[in-house]
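Aim 2, interim progress: modelling of the zinc ion-bound target.
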Amino acid sequence: MPEGDTIFRAARTLNRALGGQMVTKFESQLPQLSRIDHDAPIAGRTVEKVDAVGKWMRMYFSGDLVLVSHMLMSGSWHIYRVGEAWKRPYVQMRIAIYTDTFVAVAFQVPIAEFHTAASLARHRSITRLGPDMLAEEFDEESAVVQLRNRPELELGVALLRQSVLAGLGNVFKSEVCFISQVNPFRPVASLSGDELKRLIANARKFMKANVADAAGDAIITYTGLRRTTDRADPSARLWVYRRTGEPCRRCGTPIRSHKQGLEARTTFWCPSCQPAA
Ligand SMILES: [Zn+2]
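Predicted structure of the complex, ligand included:
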């Protein structure tokens, strides 16, 4: 599942390419979007801005229309120059938004809805999001309170709960617990204030490092590469994620993995660096 940093970068790229531009053509394989487009055409509207909140992307069009999408496991947004070959087959296209210069294509995006400002304000999954890890106004204290309010949850479950903290996904969940030296199966109630602050600071550091803007104003499709170890070697990018049985990069103990929570998302940890008690 893409994490908040991936959505943030995708939204920023789309905003640079489409922001302020007029839509010249709109295509969608999703009947609910096509129906709106038929009744109130998207072509001719201006893309006012594109942004991300948690793992949701919002694309604002003139005339009080917002396209809200969520990538879940499989979806991705690409940006191409008009005429450039797409990297995924046309049959996987769900939405394509053309301007004079660019085309933004959503491949296999499972959730996409049009909203007005009023209906967006009533959107439960978005209005019930916890503090956004990538927001400028992110406040560490309120994030600690959010976690403290769910003392019964295991840490690894709480970190993924988007109504607690918005933006963290399954890769960073394990990486953040490792770098913070905290066992992900401990209930939130057992964590000290220092441990909670350390977890939140590290989570934010990882997220922000992965949206660092090295490309300046250039418009590039994001690659999805992500790292937390500060090593350039792609095989050494992550500390524990998907490293079951491999030696811990700190102490050499084999990394363990286990499904966690009702959604059974796999958690990776070092039993020596992150003891249970
Ligand atoms: Zn270790």
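Residues 248, 250-251, 253, 270, 272-273 surround zinc ion (CB under 6 Å). Confidence is low (pLDDT under 50) at residues 215-225.
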